[in-house]
What does this fold into?
Amino acid sequence: MGRNGTLATAKNGKGRRFTATAEPPWSRLSDAALLEYRICDLKLRIAGTRLEKYVNQLYLELTARGLRFRPHCWLSEDWFSPEGVPGIAIPFFLAHPRLARLERNQMLEVEGGTKHECMRILRHEAGHAIDTAYALHRRRAWQRLFGRSSQTYPEYYQPKPYSRSYVHHLEGWYAQAHPAEDFAETFAVWLKPRSGWRVKYAGWPVIKKLRYVESTLQEIRSEKPKVRSREHVDSVPRIRKTLGDYYEEKRSRYGIGQDSYYDRDLLRLFSNAPEHAKKMAAASFLRKHRRELRQLVSHWTGQYRYTVDQIISEMIDRCRELNLRIASPPERVERDAQAMLTVQTMNILHHGHHKVAL
It folds into this structure.
């Protein structure tokens, strides 16, 4: 596909036509060179990419539920649905494999990088968009079940993993962050084909929210939206910062941002006693298992892998400074290291660095 998402054709030596793919000029650049590009100069669009297929699938799911509403979508810096605009902003790096690869290199993961995860977030954002379009949050029944959407977003939230008053959809128990997120998460579970929510949540208090979503959307499905803005908030053509500036800001936002002291836990896990001086260095052990630890802890806490990796990096530095060594069987050390890293990551979560802001 060309830069405008259309197929380009050419003739081979025998005069027969074939389809060729015209990649953008920046797609073959090194990371260092690509980081100098301004985002607006990437000339990105949804049409002709896999994102177009995912958005169309979202529309099909809405149709299957009898809904006429179609949230418009555009590319921006992050996932969000703006206040007063019944649409969905999608991160620009999902519009091209080269940008997704840069995102992974810079942040260690790509949020929405797989079809499963992208659809999961699209359904969540569609919940925000339909709430805006029909002003559902102003209804008393909505407020009785979810709370007031005007409630200030907290600087941090302390989730209750075993609560049955919320659905489980995005990581980090995000439904518990705010009433608006509670509704969006409940909508996403209701919208997903074959989610089996009636069976999965049978007997849970949250089933009342799911039934409310179903009855309310059946009620409005043939109505025209009250809010019809088609604005593209913070769209890619308006973003003049370079990719380098974008990632510098993003890493700062999802970094630890506070002093961290791990000595007590590290000294319980490892040892600096002379009798262990010939054993494997704790810093080397953590480096060896870094990727696995980062992936597991990120999955179970809902934190960005970049944030978890920053904690591991600090631990490695401190292990080196304290000259710590492993003093127990490696299997036990790995298990305990995972537990300690999870605790430290949850401490970050509870002090204002929760992962998602959708």
Q: What stands out?
A: Residues 269 and 333 are 7 Å apart (CA to CA). The two ends are 31 Å apart (CA to CA).
